[in-house]
Amino acid sequence: MLPAAKPIRELTGLTPRDLGPGILASTEPVVLRGLVAGWPMVQATSADAYLRRFYRGAPVTAMLGPPEIGGRLFYNEDLSGFNFAPVQVRLDQVLHELERHRGADKPPAIYVGSTTVDTCLPGFHDENLMDLGGRDALGSIWIGNRTRIAAHYDLPDNLACVAAGRRRFTLFPPQQVSNLYIGPLDFTPAGQAISLVDFHKPDLERFPRFATAMEHALVAELEAGDALFIPSMWWHHIEALEDFNVLVNYWWRQSPPYMDTPTNVLMHALMTVRELPLEQRQAWQELFRHYVFEADDDTAAHIPPAARRILGPLDEDAVRNIRAQLLKRMNR
After folding, report:
1. pLDDT at 260
2. Which pLDDT value is given to residue 290?
3. For the JmjC domain, which residue ranges apply (predicted)?
């Protein structure tokens, strides 16, 4: 039997105006019960009708899967493709299909994910306020029925707010990556690498270390009005528990916008470092440790400040020059 996930720490009594760095810069997840309970969206008699008020016809991408997948949006059997089809469609058509299949025992999977709120529903944020302390956050909306999204990580910090329905979140700290059996990095259902483990029926013969991952798992079930802060790089599995669910989330990075994504470094390291002999990989591991992962004020202290160049503090111009040098080298 798998170990039971532990509950995520909870706070109550906060509103969207009460969020400070103690929460928004945390390295641990926290459930914020009732954070957005006062949103008009949450209080609306019909969430469907409320969304239609703001819709102006912009197409959305919907993921549609047959009833047999049980809401699990995933790969096909041999990981050569996916068990769903993405389609460009009007949001009001999606809402109609969700309403049409409410109460069905085995409905098709219907899921609109990561759609920019201001593009799809202009004016929504004017009524449903969120104060993130000046952070440059991207607000997105997620709409669907009883779907399951495999465990994955996101680079930005994430504040996920349940606006309709219920959702179960299962989280794992970044250190559990080797126990989650991650699929391909460069061929993914929605842009992020995902765990291949089916959380409804984990195959421990194929994925035995998943039992270890579950020893570190945290879980929370959120009602409409609740929110969850998910720190950068934490793995999270999300299951929608009602026939109609709406999530609004906010993503932001703690690094300046001109900084590149570390995912590019990982992909480049796979291309240039992974196939080296062991001794050389260990040498590069030491260089990365010295210059990146354990870098501090002493790393380049022996070099005059004006001569430190890339080893000194980076600004937008310096990053632009580095990127230009890298592109020149890679295009040779």
Report:
1. 86
2. 97
3. 74-267
